[in-house]
């Protein structure tokens, strides 16, 4: 950007003013000294006459600068109040022009930023208002300060909810919704709405707004999505069951025909091998159906006090493992039969991973209000794709696997209020972690 050449700087103008005042004082002193023929008296009269002249010159010189400073002060106050429409004009070709130019550029930037912010806020409000997630924002005393269209439709028959109080509004809501709010955590709930059952997910978050803590409630309708997932799951279940039934029934049918043919030929001594194979396929089919039944009929856990050394000794009778850490001396509280089944599935997977048996380990770690049980191995681990799907029911990479082992562990963990996590180990292998409330 081209900067015009300055004729005088502020310092130059001030030096010129002082020079002119001094020159006028010398001239007045010389004039009165010559007229009165008395140097001292002439100097005194010249000084008295130059003082008003100096004040007048200073006022004339400083008046534009003082006016500019007042304008800048008022403009900055407007900026502070959010009004960025002010700009200043000055054409003196000195340093103050740079200040004015910087001020005007700042105003332009602030105006553009405010316009951009306004457009973004408008876009955000449009998105939030039209999202299918019902959203309510309540201030600390419970008054609702914001509700989108979905919230108005869900809670107030399409009317505005701003200004209403959260507690009375929720008192008119269905009982399952009130119960979900009372639990104080994110959760799913279902209730009858407009003549059909609807499933929602409740999430709540706290954040600071204008120096105060506000509560944000989000109610997401999941009915359609869950229905699609349910249909997809049933289709997968039917495919898996059909595949397993065919794998067992097809050879049984073939072997039964072969047995009948052997009897017809009078060769009953060869029937033993056929019956053994039929028994093996029937046993496999029975085990497969029992595994499916275990997921479908999982009862609610019945927690009881569990002593770790006794529990782990019983677990070792099913699958051996090395203990990495000394178990806690305090009692745990969980359903021992269900947790034992979960750990058996985890240990079974570890032994079937190809890991050396002596490197299959189990460790119990107290974590405050929770405890974590790690089952680790030194097998090949899992790829990212397998890790992402390992907990999905019926997903298996094993030729004879049902895909229900880890899915059952997940069901048991979540029934206890815990969770399961899988991670590849450094140096190879897999660690499956079961976290439970202590």
Automatic annotation (TrEMBL):
Its main location: membrane. CDD domains: HATPase. GO terms for molecular function: kinase activity. Residues 70-115 form the HAMP domain. InterPro entries: BphY/WalK/GraS-like, HAMP_dom, HATPase_C_sf, HATPase_dom, His_kinase_dom, HisK_dim/P_sf, Sig_transdc_His_kin-like_C. It is found in: Membrane. Pfam families: HATPase_c (PF02518). Signal peptide: none annotated. Residues 240-438 form the Histidine kinase domain. It is an enzyme of class 2 (transferase). The chain crosses the membrane at residues 39-58. This is histidine kinase. It comes from Lysobacter koreensis. The lineage of its organism: Bacteria, Pseudomonadati, Pseudomonadota, Gammaproteobacteria, Lysobacterales.
């Amino acid at each position: 950007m081209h900067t015009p050449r300055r004729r005088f700087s502020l310092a130059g103008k001030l030096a010129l003013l002082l020079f002119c005042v001094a020159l006028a004082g010398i001239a007045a002193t010389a004039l009165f000294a010559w007229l009165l023929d008395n140097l001292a008296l002439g100097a005194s009269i010249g000084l008295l006459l130059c003082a008003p002249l100096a004040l007048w010159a200073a006022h004339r010189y400083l008046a534009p600068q003082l006016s500019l400073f007042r304008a800048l002060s008022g403009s900055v106050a407007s900026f502070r109040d959010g009004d960025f429409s002010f700009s200043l004009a000055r054409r003196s070709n000195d340093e103050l022009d740079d200040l004015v130019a910087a001020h005007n550029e700042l105003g332009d930037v602030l105006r553009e930023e405010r316009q951009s912010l306004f457009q973004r806020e408008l876009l955000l409000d449009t998105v939030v208002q039209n999202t299918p997630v019902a959203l309510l924002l309540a201030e600390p005393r419970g008054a609702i300060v914001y509700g989108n269209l979905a919230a108005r439709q869900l809670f107030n028959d399409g009317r505005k909810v701003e200004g209403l109080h959260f507690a009375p509004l929720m008192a008119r809501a269905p009982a399952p919704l009130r119960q979900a709010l009372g639990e104080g955590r994110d959760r799913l709930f279902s209730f009858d709405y407009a003549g059909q059952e609807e499933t929602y997910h409740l999430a709540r978050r706290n954040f600071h707004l204008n120096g105060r803590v506000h509560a944000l409630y989000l109610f997401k309708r999941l009915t359609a999505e869950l229905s699609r997932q349910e249909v997809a799951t049933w289709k997968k279940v039917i495919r898996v069951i059909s595949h397993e039934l065919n794998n067992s029934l097809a050879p049984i049918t073939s072997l039964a025909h072969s047995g009948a043919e052997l009897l017809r030929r009078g060769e009953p001594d060869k029937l033993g091998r056929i019956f053994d194979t039929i028994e093996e396929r029937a046993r496999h089919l029975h085990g497969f159906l029992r595994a499916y039944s275990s997921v479908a009929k999982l009862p609610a856990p019945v927690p009881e006090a569990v002593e770790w050394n006794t529990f782990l000794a019983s677990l070792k009778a099913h699958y051996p493992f090395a203990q990495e850490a000394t178990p806690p001396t305090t009692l745990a509280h969980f359903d021992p039969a269900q947790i034992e089944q979960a750990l058996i599935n985890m240990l079974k997977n570890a032994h079937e991973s190809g890991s050396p048996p002596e490197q299959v380990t189990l460790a119990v770690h107290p974590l405050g209000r929770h405890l974590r049980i790690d089952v680790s191995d030194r097998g090949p681990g899992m790829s990212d794709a397998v890790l992402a799907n390992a907990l999905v029911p019926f997903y298996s990479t094993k030729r004879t696997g049902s895909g229900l082992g880890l899915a059952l562990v997940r069901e048991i963990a979540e029934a206890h209020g815990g969770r399961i996590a899988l991670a590849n180990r450094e140096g190879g292998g897999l660690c499956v972690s079961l976290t439970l409330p202590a």
